[in-house]
Amino acid sequence: MRPATDREWANGNAAPQPGWALSPKDEAQLNDALKRCSPSTREAAREFRRTGRADYLPVIVNGLIEHFVEPDLRGKLSRSDDGLRLVEDLAIDSLTMLEIVYLAEDVLQVTIDNEELRPFRTVGDIKEFLVAKLQHVHPQVLASSPGNPGTAEPRRPAARPAGV
């Protein structure tokens, strides 16, 4: 949906690296994109951009979805687990899903193809997909917290046998 994003990261431009501070321009763009989201969503997005840590993704995903669902359904999101169904429980239609994806692309700086949206049935599906997608596209960026299950571990090269 935003094909330039992955190319920019592949060329080494603007990819968040752990320990990097956001530029004022990046911070302003992020704040503008998330201006109607909760403060916790904005903070998690800033920290994700700054650190690349996967443990911020659940707060970001819940916040992006919460922004687009009807106000009377938002409580379900905060009270439920990752098994919450997008269509049946949150009344998210295909247009709303596209809006969520566009915002996720901006916030997480990743490209999501329309075909990749088809298997999304639950909130957990979105979270799992984003962790896998970010790890695949930018394995050096996505990090996890020690002892935090359910976050992606950075890939490490296999050890070489001695004498090879």
Describe this structure in words.
By secondary structure, the chain is mostly helical. The protein has a single domain, classed as Non-ribosomal Peptide Synthetase Peptidyl Carrier Protein, Chain A (Orthogonal Bundle). The protein is 48% helix and 0% strand. Helix 3 (39-51) runs antiparallel to helix 4 (57-68), helix 4 runs antiparallel to helix 6 (94-108) and helix 4 crosses helix 7. The chain is globular and about 40 Å long. The protein starts with a helix and ends in a 27-residue tail after the last helix. The model is unreliable at 1-18 and 144-164 (pLDDT under 50).
> Based on the structure given, which CATH architecture is correct?
Orthogonal Bundle
Elements, N to C (H/E): HHHHHHH
Question: Kindly state the mean pLDDT as a whole number?
Answer: 78
Coarse morphology: globular
How many helical stretches? 7
For the sheet with most strands, the description reads: none
Q: Percentage of helical residues? A: 40-55%
Rg from Cα: 17 Å
Given helix and strand content, the structural type is: mainly alpha
- Termini separation (Å)? 44 Å
| Amount of beta strand | under 5%
Multimeric state of these chains?
single chain
The CATH class designation is: Mainly Alpha
When the domains are counted, the total is: 1
CATH-assigned fold name: Non-ribosomal Peptide Synthetase Peptidyl Carrier Protein, Chain A
Low-confidence stretches: 1-18, 144-164
Q: Could you give the count of β-strands? A: 0
